[in-house]
């Protein structure tokens, strides 16, 4: 097979077509065995910088773990919103111009949509969007679809319920957009009033021929689904405390929903969970959310290896 040029920066889901997705997943599968030999050294001598202007546990640690497992090294500004020079008024462009002297790729999470694009516009090293406000979370979407692929053996002809806060959640937004790269999938949107999926995403689904329907009753949705993807109410993004209080606690995934689901289906969640999934769901083998975090390491290893490794930005 001919080598495929990969996007230089990872900013938006729409940079990836189906061929990118298939090749990336194949590469991520190969990363499983690399992950068991720490310091095998594919990225020895490379440095990754992680700049997080918003809270995170798994996204930052998962990128850092991925880099270390590839034999590279990591420098990190956690809570950059309070500890970095941004506090002194430095622009993201200036921050990037400096950090690219220290690192070979930069992962950025920021509360404002579009900041990773602004960074990429001036950067001479790859920029990876690790979540830009309510905008996008492309590496999460890729790992979510990879989880589906590994758990169910396919990414086409599936019924996928996106549940919860679809308005402010960048994870379900990005996953929905990535589903436009699949064939024959049907999306069920199960969400309380006020936090429905935005029109821009629905328009993308329609344009790509992905059928979707709204089903507020999560039991009815779960019964028909191969995947139920539950999300957290994005408290930090609500315009007012009132609006948040209204959405808060308006949905719970419990053993009732699980009982309605098919035996070969899965429950996913990007995490962190607050109270959207009852704790007793965890023990069921269909609860895939902790495994999902592990698939994330393989996807991020694959992305870093493609961007920084000997392929020079191409993928076999
Ligand atoms: C998500 C995020 O930050 O958008 N978390 C993550 O990266 N796994 C989801 C969330 O915060 O609810």
3D architecture notes:
The chain has 316 residues and is α/β, with parallel strands linked by helices. Helices cover 39% and strands 15% of the residues. The protein has 12 helices and 11 strands. The strands form 3 sheets. Strands 8-7-6-9-10 form a 5-stranded parallel β-sheet, with helices on both faces. A 4-stranded parallel β-sheet has the order 3-2-4-5, sandwiched between helices. A two-stranded antiparallel sheet has the order 1-11. The radius of gyration is 19 Å and the shape is globular. The chain starts with a strand and ends with a strand. The mean pLDDT is 95. N-carbamoyl-L-aspartate (NCD) binds at residues 58-59, 131, 137, 140, 170-171, 232, 270-271.
Q: Helical segment tally?
A: 12
Shape annotation: globular
Structural class comes to alpha/beta
Radius of gyration: 19 Å
Distance N to C terminus: 7 Å
Strand percentage lies at 15-25%
- Ligands in the structure? N-carbamoyl-L-aspartate
**Largest sheet, order of strands side by side?**
8-7-6-9-10
Helix content range: 25-40%
Order of helices and strands: EHEHEHHEHEHEHEHEHEHHEHE
């Amino acid at each position: 097979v001919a080598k495929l040029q990969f996007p230089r920066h990872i900013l938006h889901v729409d940079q990836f077509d189906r061929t990118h997705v298939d090749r990336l997943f194949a590469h991520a599968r190969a990363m499983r065995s690399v992950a068991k030999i720490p310091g095998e050294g594919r990225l020895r001598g490379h440095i990754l910088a992680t700049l997080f202007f918003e809270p995170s546990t798994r996204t930052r640690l998962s990128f850092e773990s991925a880099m270390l497992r590839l034999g590279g090294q990591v420098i990190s500004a956690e809570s950059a919103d309070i500890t970095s020079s941004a506090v002194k008024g430095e622009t993201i462009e200036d921050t990037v111009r400096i950090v690219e002297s220290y690192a070979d790729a930069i992962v950025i999470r920021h509360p404002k949509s579009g900041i990773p694009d602004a960074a990429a516009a001036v950067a001479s090293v790859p920029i990876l969007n690790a979540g830009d406000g309510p905008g996008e979370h492309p590496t999460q979407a890729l790992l979510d679809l990879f989880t589906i692929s590994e758990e169910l053996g396919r990414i086409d002809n599936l019924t996928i319920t996106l549940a919860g806060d679809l308005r402010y959640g960048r994870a379900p937004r990005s996953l929905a957009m990535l589903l436009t790269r699949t064939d024959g999938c049907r999306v069920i949107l199960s969400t309380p009033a006020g936090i429905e999926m935005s029109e821009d995403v629905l328009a993308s689904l329609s344009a790509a021929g992905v059928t979707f329907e709204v089903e507020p009753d999560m039991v009815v949705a779960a019964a028909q689904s191969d995947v139920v993807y539950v999300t957290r109410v994005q408290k930090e993004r609500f315009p007012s405390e009132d609006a948040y209080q209204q959405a808060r606690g308006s949905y719970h995934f419990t053993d009732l929903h699980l009982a309605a689901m098919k035996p070969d289906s899965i429950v996913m969640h990007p995490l962190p969970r607050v109270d959207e999934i009852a704790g007793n769901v965890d023990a069921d083998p269909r609860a895939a959310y902790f495994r999902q975090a592990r698939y994330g390491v393989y996807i991020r290893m694959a992305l870093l290896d493609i961007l920084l490794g000997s392929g020079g930005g191409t993928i076999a």
